Amino acid sequence: MYTTTAHPLTQPLARPPLRRRRDRNAVPALWRQVVRSGAKEDDRTVQREPDRSAFSQLEIYDAVLRAFERRAEVLDTIAAASDRDAAVGRVRDLLAVSPAQAGAVVDLPLHRFTTGTRDRVARRADELRQALTR
C-alpha cells in the first residue's frame, strides 16, 4: 500500500485569468424581442425596445423585409459563403444594405423565415414609421 502526502504551498495560488466577453452586437437582442414576441404575448402589445434608436431599428426591419421578399436568393447566398463575414458581405451586396443590416439578416435563424415572422416585422416597422412621422 502506498501513501501520499501533500506538501504545504509556499506561494498563494494564482487566480485563473478572467474570460472577457466579446462585445455583442445589439441586433441579436433585437431579434429575440421581435421574433420571439409573437409566441409569448399578443402581437398587438408594444414591448420596450433595447437601447437602439427608432431609426436604426427601422433600417434593420426594412432590410429584413427585403430579405423576406428575396429569401431564396438570400439563403443561397448565405449557404455559398465560407464564413459569417463572407455571408454578411454577400448579403450586403445582394440587398444593397449596410453591414449592420446585413448582419441582422444573416443572424436571423432559418426557422424564423416564416410568414408569421414577416408579418410581425412588417407590423412593427409600420408602427415605427407612424411614430417617427408624428
UniProtKB/TrEMBL annotation:
Protein name per Swiss-Prot or TrEMBL: DNA topoisomerase (ATP-hydrolyzing)
Position of the signal peptide: none
Domain of life where this protein originates: Bacteria
Organism (species): Kribbella amoyensis
GO molecular function: ATP binding; DNA binding; DNA topoisomerase type II (double strand cut, ATP-hydrolyzing) activity
Region of interest called Disordered, as start-end residue ranges on this chain: 1-22
Residue ranges that the Swiss-Prot or TrEMBL entry lists as coiled coil: none
InterPro entries named in the record: Topo_IIA_A_a_sf (IPR013757)
